Amino acid sequence: xxxxxxxxxxxxxxxxxxxxxxxxxxxxxxxxxxxxxxxxxxxxxxxxxxxxxxxxxxxxxxxxxxxxxxxxxxxxxxxxxxxxxxxxxxxxxxxxxxxxxxxxxxxxxxxx
Length: 112
Known about the structure:
elongated; 76% helix
């Protein structure tokens, strides 16, 4: 039974790739993705603050607040475990989400 379990572990792709060089490259890619990804919110921010502020009431304060809270939790987790891609991406996301919350509060006030 022990031999069979060892064989199963050897077949597990994650056990074979743990110490390979490409993991470092993949982590570098994920740092870039973590940095660039949160900027997908920028068009929303531009509309909210500059071009379509009259449509701020169409934005959900609860949703953007929840996004901010979740980003905060992931940011803290990334710091705790020391994973750069996690805390970089979620730190930027936290900032973007808080800017959305602030913009909604500024233009509409507190509404659910």
